[in-house]
Amino acid sequence: MSTPILTLQNVCVSYGAVEAVHGVSLSVDEGEIFTVIGANGAGKTTLLNAIMGLLPLRGTMMFQGRAISGLSIEERVASGMALVAETRELFGAMSVLDNLRLGAWTQRGKRAGDDLEAVFARFPRLKERISQRADTMSGGERQMLAMGRALMSRPRLLMLDEPSLGLAPRIVGDIFKVIAALRQQGTAVLLIEQNARAALAAANQAAVMELGSFTSQGPASAIAADPGIIRSYLGLH
Ligand SMILES: Nc1ncnc2c1ncn2[C@@H]1O[C@H](COP(=O)(O)OP(=O)(O)OP(=O)(O)O)[C@@H](O)[C@H]1O
Ligand SMILES: [Mg+2]
Fold first, then answer.
1. What is the pTM assigned to this prediction?
2. How many CA atoms within 13 Å lie on the side-chain side of 217?
């Protein structure tokens, strides 16, 4: 059996004295998509930020078989983690091309040209706008650029915080196609989504987060078929 890419056991995250994530456990293998769905304020972003090292975390976290709690954010990126934050942080005054090139800093120039072509193949819109300033891009284009930049670091684990937020349905479809292609390529994906229906369809594992805890967890197909979850998160379609 291969080593999981990411394993969390009984992970807790606090803001000062207030605990926002209570004892979460999960495991994501190569080529798997694990999605976390849940209401606003459930603790989803907090969990991703803590995995990335932006917030301190208690409990056990293993990345590719190593305990990495002592690693800085930069070291985590260099070892194969990437986070596309809810805020889609970009270097606003810099061009599309320079934003993508900065995403490749962990590669030290190795094959960065090929990776750039791979990103343009996934997101042709970025190639058309190669010299446009990032802060003049539309919402959907910014999301593509943020994802493209994350891909330039060749992540083993790609964490996406609400990638479809505020995007038109066609662009959401494009983003989900890219996520599916990454999975085929063996990348592990940890996906947070308000669009629970699309996320559960794309993922193979899922958890429902409520008030900082996972209240249901299992195969995405089982979560998607759970009557209580359908009522609360999927509506009657
Ligand atoms: N910097 C902070 N300081 C104190 N509390 C915070 C901080 N950031 C978030 N919280 C609180 O932690 C809880 C979880 O927030 P979080 O942003 O993780 O939720 P979420 O599930 O991502 O919600 P959403 O779907 O709205 O993005 C919330 O009660 C929030 O108010
Ligand atoms: Mg959030």
1. 0.94
2. 11
Atom of ligand 1 lying closest to residue 194 CA: 25
Contact yes or no for 11/47 (Cβ under 8 A): yes
Instruction: DSSP letter for 54, please.
Output: S
- Structure tokens that stand for 133 in this block: 């300033």
Distances (CA, A) of 225 to 29, 64, 200, 220, 222: 23, 31, 10, 9, 5
- Whether 44 is in the pocket of ligand 1, judged by its Cβ within 6 Å, is yes
Express each pLDDT in 41-97 by its tens digit: 999 999 999 999 999 999 999 999 999 989 999 999 999 999 999 888 898 999 999
Q: Which of 162, 216, 206 is nearest to 40 (CA)?
A: 162
Unique residue bearing structure tokens 């004892």: 23
> Is residue 27 classed exposed, middle or buried when 0-12, 13-18 and 19+ CB atoms within 10 A define those classes?
middle
The dihedral formed by the CA atoms of 35, 178, 114 and 138, expressed in degrees to the nearest 10:
-100
Q: For residue 200, which phi and psi values (nearest 5 degrees)?
A: -70, -30
Ligand 1 proximity of 43 Cβ (cutoff 6 Å): yes
Distance from C-alpha of 33 to C-alpha of 38, rounded to nearest angstrom: 16
For ligand 1, say whether the CB of 40 is within 6 Å of any of its atoms: yes
